[in-house]
Amino acid sequence: MGYSNRLNGRVWPYSHAILIILSFVLWCYFFRGFLFRICDFASDAIPYYNHTKFFIDNISRGVYPLWDPFIETGIANEFFLRRIGEFNPFYTIILILTKLGVTYPSAYLTFLVTYYFIGLMGFYLLAKRFTQDDNSAFVAYALLMFSSLGTQLFYNFLILIFVPTVWFFYFLVSFSSYPSKHSLLGMVFSVMIILTTYIPFYFLTIMVAFSLCYLLLYFGDIKMLIERYWRFVAKNRLFVFLCCGALILSALPGMFFYLEGRKSEFVLPVRHIESEQGNVLEVARERLEEPGVITHIKPEWFLSNLNEFELGRFYLPIFVYIIFLLGLLTRMTKGSFLLVLLGFIIFLISSPEAVSLHGFLSERIFFFKFFRNLRFFLELVLSPILILHISCQLKSLLDVQKGGLKGKVGWMLMVIAVHIGFFIFLIYQPGVIISSYVVILLSFTFFVFYGLKGFGSGKTGPMICLLVLIVAQPIEVYKYLNQNSIKFIGEHVYDQPYLDFRYLRAEKNQAMANYDIQFQKPVLYIATKWFNALYQAIAPDILDRYLNYKFIVYDQAEHSTGNPDFKRIEEALAGHKNLAFIEAGGEAGEKEGSVESKDIPGTFMGIEGDTDEFQILDFNVNSIQVKTNFATRKFLVYNDSFYRGWRVFINNKEETLRRTNVAFKGVWVPAGEQVVDFQYAAPLRIVSGFLLLGLFHVVFMAVVVLWRKDVKGEQIALSGGS
Description:
The protein is α+β, with helices and mostly antiparallel strands. The chain has two domains: 503 residues, no CATH class; 155 residues, no CATH class. It contains 25 helices and 17 strands. It has a five-stranded antiparallel beta sheet, with no helix packed on it. α1 packs parallel to α21 and α10 crosses α16. The N terminus is likely disordered.
């Protein structure tokens, strides 16, 4: 790819550093409505905000949250941990700020903005490697910043994929150019973050497509690259071995999560396949075939009706189209052709409404069955590729000063034709905002002046002008975005503390938004398979009244095998009958109790608070400890979902945990004073989670230290060792 020469000097010129910061401050100002909570999150951004809070709140208390008792009467939290990629060291920003007294919403928004800036800096450095030009890299950075990628922070989880992906490719290009420890470890760290999300398949698709394109266009360079890599490996065997070890360890959570999905103890009714076979993480065929990129790049959205702009809508500043049109007559480099080819392949894969390639791949390549939302490739890949290509075109356009008079005349005629033609085109389009015309006029002035006189030897002048051209339209577009977005009307329920135990569900602070809001009953988003079955079969009002109690005490229990008799169970729950239904353990229909039938009360005892007979001793999301002092043997039901991995101890002695009333946990408790412990997950699993958290932080710090060391060594070498 022509990256054999190293980039010397500082990472960016001093003037560029100022413009980089200034432009990002402008972006923050444009999004002040979201950053100051005037406008609210939308779509997937809400549950991700929520999952992250749940994780941070627990970690701040020294609890690794492997279970969430607040979602559909309890569910293993692994799914949501994989969604947010909990090992990402940048979540420490939220933890530190909240410990310093900053509210969680402000801390979370600070994390989002910081993480976005880090991703943009990775893109800047990648563009600099690709174009070998500071100015073109800055333009690429600014164009991407003011595209719709920035709006995705408040709409979905795309930023969690984009940042490690762009940094991986920067480190890959850097390592291929000149192998170094920080570049290799940077690649490893980026992949580690990606692997610990449950959808690393966007990255895998991009990487496979990129590798194929590179092999096709740069086949002659492969031998040289392999030799370069091998020399580095031979020289740094121990370091490479440690990197491989870190990668393997980071892959374990995802592998265990995949195996958990095969066991089918939890279900995802909204998205997974209905078959009993396969993995519940697989996406149903009809969801795989949902509209992709083409549906979300409506031509009428590019330049028209931007006064209706809102979250989720695709957008690129109009200056992108101007450069693209001007650059059509410039020479395409081999690197640019690689970008075009890669973009074309990703476009075909992500457009199932037009091409059947994705369906073909999903039938033959396993990982295509595990992710949907193909439209995310638009902002994740296609926009950055287009902007990188345009930055190369801009570099060629601005080289006009190096050409002769004949070349300048032709260049000037092209500038005039493109701007006049584009201006006339806009006149005939509906709903064009005024800033679009302003940008065309300013762009025409800039290119004419640059072609005639240039800006001398300094680089700051043209960069300021280009920044104005880039932001002139987004100023107006983002004004409309703030106007059209959902307004924040008060604290969300999950902004409040919700980790403390409440006896009655009606009194507890709701931890998560109810997914049923967007889907008509009886569809849940996620639940244990047994709770989902109960939810489907029992009348909602009956189930809600029963679930109001987190602890229920029975005197009798009836054994059942095979399929539950939901009608009989519903009648028992409706009448609060003093009879629990427990799975197996005896003959079907066999009853066991604590007292003679004539002495049994007709209804169960729902625990509403601490009493002489029942007290909560300790609670966290992974366990609960209670003290009982019943006069007779009782069957205690904890209305938290039954799930493999839960265990129960009475006075430190393990007892048999029964699946009760189809979906919950129950145990026989002897008379007298007893201490009952319900615990989820083995201590080793909890310790391993904390150890992996530590590993990710250590690797991140090692990347920073090695990078500083390599840069310092390079500066010494350039100065002749002085």
